[in-house]
Structures are given as C-alpha cells and as structure tokens.
Amino acid sequence: MMRSACSTLFFEGGISISVPLVKHSEGEKWYEYASAERIEGDTKNADIFEIEKKADFLFRRDVDLHDQLERNRAGSEAAWLRTVVVQGTAADKTSAKEVLVHRSPVHALSHLTMLVSIIEKKNTREAYSLLGVLKELFINELLPPNRKLIPFSMRPIAKLNILSAGSQQNMERRLILWKFESDLKRVFETFVNAVERLADGTVENVCAEACRTALDLLAERPEQEQRLLSLLVNKLGHPNRKLASRLIGYLVRLSLRQPKMRSIIVNEVERLIYRKNVSYRAQLYAVSFLAQMQLRAGEVDLATSLLNIYIGLFRMLVAKQKMDEKMLSALLTATNRAFPEGVSDRFYAALYRRLLDVENSAAQESQLFGLLLKTLKNDSVDQRVTAFIKRLLQLSLNRSSAFAAAALVLVSKLLEDRPSLLLLSKKVDKMTDANSVKMEAIDVRDDDEEERYFDMPDSDITAVNNTDSIEEKPDVKHQSAWGWIHKHNIKLGGRSRQVGAPSVKQGE
Fold first, then answer.
1. What residues pair up with 496 in beta bridges, in sequence order?
2. How many CA atoms lie within 13 A of 389 on its CB side?
3. E-only strand ranges, 453-499
4. Phi, psi angles (nearest 5°) of residue 273
C-alpha cells in the first residue's frame, strides 16, 4: 500500500513546476526549515532504496530549476560567479563556491563536494588552504548545532503522507530535504576522513591545522563527535613530541568549551591509557592532560574517575616495573589536583601502600607530603589518620633525617588543626580489649610462619603490678622492657603522665 501510494503521488498525479520547491532566504539556515523526523530503534523500511531513488530524482530536479533561475537572473555578480567557477584560478574558484554555498546550501552540494575532494587529494598545500574554509562552512552554514544529521534510511517513510498532510508538493519538498541531509552527512564523513589523513601526516603545520579543525568542529557541532574526539586523543601518542604537547592544550580547551563532554573525554583518554601496545610517552601525555583539567565544584563522580585512573595506572606500571620519576611526578600532581573533589577508600589504601616506596627523590617526597597533608586534613575518619601518622613515624626510623623532619612537621600541623587526635585513649583501650579477645581465639597450631604482635591487655598489666609475690628493691629503678610509651608523656589537662612498662624483680 505504501509503495503504490508513493508512486502515485510522485508521478501519476504530479504537477508541473518551473521554480524550485526549496527556497533559501538570506540569513536563514537550511536546518531551520528542514524536518528532524527519524525512526526510533532499528526498524527498517522495505522500500527504502526505491523511495530514496525517487527522492534523488526530485533533488536533482530542484537543483536544476535553481540553477536555471540563477542563470536567468540579471546582474553582473551572478554572471561573474558562473564564469569564475568554470574558468577562474584555484583561489577564485574556492571563493566563488563558498559564496554559492552561503546563498543556498541545498542547491550547492555539488560545489561543496568538489571542495572536499580537493582535500582528499595528496596535495598538502591545497588541502592546508582549504581546511579553514570548509571548517567555517560546516560550522556556520551546514551542520545543525543541536542534533546530528539524519541518514535517509532512518526517515519515517511510512508516515510520509501523514507528515505532508496529503499534499504532494509538501511531500516532494520534504523528500528533497531528507535526501540533501543524507548526502550532506556522507560528504561530511568524507571530510572527516580527509582530516584524519592529514593529522596522520609528517608535516607539523598541516597536522596541527587538521587537529585544530577537529577541535573546533567537535566543540561547536555534535556531528561525528566520537570520531573527532578519538582523532584528538590518539594524537597524544604522535611521534612528533611538539605536536603531542599541542594536543594537550587542545584537549584542555575542549574541556572548557564543552563542559558536558568532560566525562566522555576522560573515558576516551582512559581507553588510550589502557590500550594494548600503547607507548609509554602517550600514557605520560595522557596523564599530563588529565592533570590540567579544571574540576568544578560538584564534579565528584568525575574526580573519582580520575583518581581511579591514576591508581590503576600506578599499579600497572609498578607491576611491569616501568615506573620512573617523570610518570610518578605526573601522577602525584594529577592526584593532588583531583583529590579535593572526590576521594574513595581505594585511594586511601593505595596511598597507604605508597608510603613504603623507598626510592623517592627529594622532589617526589615534597609532593608526597603535600598530598598527605591535604589528604589527612580532609579525612573524617580519625582511626585512618592515626594509622597514617603511625606509619610515617615508623618509616622515619629508617629514612633520611629530612624525611623524619618532614614527617614531624606534618604530624604537628595535623595536631594543630585536629587536636582530637590526641584524645583517642578510650578508643585505643577499646581496640586493645578487642585485640585481646582475638588473641585468645587464635589456635596455637595455626602457624603460617608469620609473626603476630598483639598489645598486652591493661588488665594483665595491672595484675602483674599488684602481684604480692613480686618485691621491688627500693634502690633499683624501674626498667622498661618495651621502651617508653609516647602517649603517656603527653600532657592532658595540665598534668603529665609517665607510665612505663611493668618492672620485674631484680636478681631472680
């Protein structure tokens, strides 16, 4: 039924026209009077090829009528354009075709196709000069700002009669615009292919111009956004280091111009980082770009994604023994910038393990302590902060004097901001009681060749001190079997407590 109805409307009941059905006014965009209907899902039209063939006939007829109307128009400018397009120099031909596309994009698709075909050729000089022209045409005249171009196969052919309200002229006009948009989509895909080829070249200026073209198209229009984004991200591994460094700046600008794409950009960069056979330098440039992303308040999910990338890359490089000072410095810098917006438990665990790395340079230790200070100041879990402090103090015994001094300064700053860390004695006692219960529950036969350490319960200490069978000589000082306990030397409430380990009777 649909097939016979369409055929009747196209030819049996057609009307004779002498003017184009699509009229373009100055200052108007073709997508403003075009329709955006499309099929939802994967539904396919059985007669799509036949209908598209008839739409192509209507489209070519409308172009011929428009050209005939232009030839009949009086005026020196119209005559000049017709002459220059055929007989002018390369630069004049380009200018004339650009004017024709501005005047009526629907009827100048052939001129646009010719310009794109020049970029496809291997003449790098001509392609370089045309990149800017075509970029401006696509952004300012041809590509819709809020939607992607729709191929003819995704049009609701079955609803054509309803959409056209039974009018043959409206139906033909709609089919012409559908066909033009579908062909324009193919032309733009060809243009993107040419841009990718130029970006892969060896001439630095041409590669940079191709990347800038991709950047502007991606920032301004949604058409082919995934391919353009992949083009830019993949160039982080370009053999030319200067160009790869430029790409970092391009991607930073893209994240600022299109803040809604930031998570998509991060996901694409993550795919590059974990891609098989990706170069180490590409990973380094990728981390450098991510470190320069300016996170905004409320972007917790994005910050968490960044931290997960940094932690995962750190683990992978350490496992492969490929970590060096440049990458470590880049990861620390990136983590410092992403940390205020989102921190997960995995981050704390990775940072805690990171403290054991003994191959830190002075610059890396400075960054590490800066990260630790920022991390621990914002951590609301006191027990975790205490664990970090204990590990720092333990490591200070085996590290350099500079490390020990920095650790003490860090602890001092933490205690100034969070004096509650000094008042954890009750919590420590509870933890000690819990440890004693665990110790009693351990089977002595459970020997995994690892030493186990447990705090001695306070009740046992009291029992030892109060035992009548132990006598103390008045002239013998108490000896500490385990050394002094730092928390008992802290002044609380204006009084000092000094409690040593239990004494034993001398000479026995």
1. 491
2. 20
3. 491-492, 495-496
4. -60, -40
Three-state secondary structure call for residue 495 = strand
For residue 174, with 0-12 CB atoms within 10 Å meaning exposed, 13-18 middle and 19 or more buried, which class applies?
buried
Q: How many helices (H) and strands (E) does the chain have?
A: 22, 2
Residue 495: per-residue pLDDT: 46
Nearest CA to 58 out of 166, 172, 181, 185 is that of 172
150-182 tens-digit pLDDT: 999 888 888 888 888 878 888 999 999 999 999
- Residue 246 and residue 168 in contact, taking contact as beta carbons nearer than 8 Å: no
Instruction: Provide Rg for the chain, Cα atoms.
Output: 37
User: Dihedral, CA atoms, 202, 206, 210, 215, nearest 10 degrees?
Assistant: 110
**Can you spell out the DSSP letters for 95-142?**
HHHHHHHHH-GGGGHHHHHHHHHHHHSS-HHHHHHHHHHHHHHIIIII
Strand partners for 492: 495
Measured distance CA(415)–CA(64) in Å, rounded: 83
- State the Cα–Cα distance between residues 508 and 504, nearest whole angstrom: 9
The CA distance from 73 to 20, in Å, is: 14
Domain boundary assignment for the chain = 1-223, 246-354, 425-443+451-496
Q: For residues 284 and 329, what is the distance between their CA atoms, to the nearest angstrom?
A: 10
Listed in sequence order, the DSSP H helices in 235-380 are: 241-257, 262-273, 280-292, 300-319, 325-338, 345-354, 362-378
Q: What is the DSSP letter of 202?
A: S
Task: Find where tokens 């590290």 sit.
Answer: 399
Integer Cα distance of 489 and 498 in angstroms: 5
CA distances from 321 to 315, 316, 318, 326, 353 (A): 10, 9, 5, 14, 16
Quick one: tokens of 333? 């810098």
Closest-CA residue to 139 (of 257, 210, 223): 223
> Model pTM?
0.67
Give the residue-averaged pLDDT of 330-358: 75
**Interacting residues of 199 by C-beta distance below 8 A, sequence separation 6+:** 207, 210, 211, 214, 231, 235
| Nearest alpha carbon to residue 183 among 85, 288, 63 | 63
Residues 6+ apart with CB under 8 A from 502: 461, 464, 465, 481
The span from the first CA to the last CA of the chain, in angstroms, equals: 113
Nearest to 118 by CA among 96, 94, 135: 94
Which position has the token pair 């954890």?
Answer: 424
The pLDDT value recorded for residue 376 is: 85
pLDDT band at 247 (very low <50, low <70, confident <90, very high): very high
Rounded Cα–Cα distance for residues 87 and 299 (Å): 57
Exposure of 92 by Cβ count < 10 A (0-12 exposed, 13-18 middle, 19+ buried)? middle
